[in-house]
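SEQUENCE-TO-STRUCTURE ENTRY
===========================

Subject: a protein chain together with a token-level encoding of how that chain folds.

Sequence line: the amino acid chain in single-letter code, read from start to end.

Question of interest: how does this chain fold, as expressed in backbone structure tokens?
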Amino acid sequence: MSNADIESARRTIDKEIDALRVMESELDDNLTKALNLMQNTKGRVIVTGMGKSGHIGQKIAATLASTGTPSFFVHPAEASHGDLGMLTDDDVVLAISNGGESKELSDILIYCKRYGIPLISMTKNPDSTLGKAGDILLKLPDAAEACPLGLAPTSSTTATLVLGDILAIALMERKGFSKSSYKQRHPGGKLGAILQKVSDLMHTGDEMPILNEHAALRQIILTMSSKLLGCVGIVDENGFLTGMITDGDLRRAMVNSSDNDLFSKTAEEIMTRDPKTISADMLVAEAVNIMNTTGKGITQLFVVEDKKPIGIIHMHDCLRAGFTINENKNTTTSQNQNKAA
């Protein structure tokens, strides 16, 4: 990259930051009013805009919808040909136009006034058609575009995008939107994998290989073979998990015992005591990292609650869910990490 390219990049960044600083200085009570309206609406937030404003509007609608505020984008041209029917009296419209004079928005503005649908205007020009039509004005900065010709929407679209993010994040904070809520809206891709919990993958009930401390070797082998998880959890008379027997434990017992002595042993004599356990609300990524970093070749973890086993998770379950192990860095990644969320 040439020095000229670097300087151009820095000028663009500086101009767009300048625009954001102007917008920051102009924030006022209208932001709170808009948030109140969006939070309390019984319907959806309908976002609309033309051209580059429309492209940004689609992203704003998608961000709102994925973070707990029902929302979708309506193209203003399509609205004039029937899509106005998507709007209801319970909705709120967020209309975007940097200059505020997009002719394509006129039918939506008229429709909002006719049917009393609240309108939030996002524009840099309060005296424009859109600025005057809105019940609430969210002002965009009247700042120079990063484009050297001063024409291509650059700084203005960045500011519009950031203002949309401001709305989405503030609404998330107001509603106490959690990771669990976010996961429900992102079941696929990298985000879905990253936010999966152990409870989503663990084997429970009859799928768990559980025996008491007095179980004989025959029971242990039969249980391990039938459950197909490569281990057996051992519990005491109170149901507390006290140990775990794996294929490795069986092999070690065979090596260290005579034929007659081996089959007389009980689970309590063979098991590995106090095995590593996890909780159901732990992220799967954390569970895989425990398996990977413990250094004992662990491929199964029992899930406990009050020291009692409620589930078990196997490395194969994690691999099927899209997780892989980076052995060089001892970190866990998702196979979907290079895909769009």
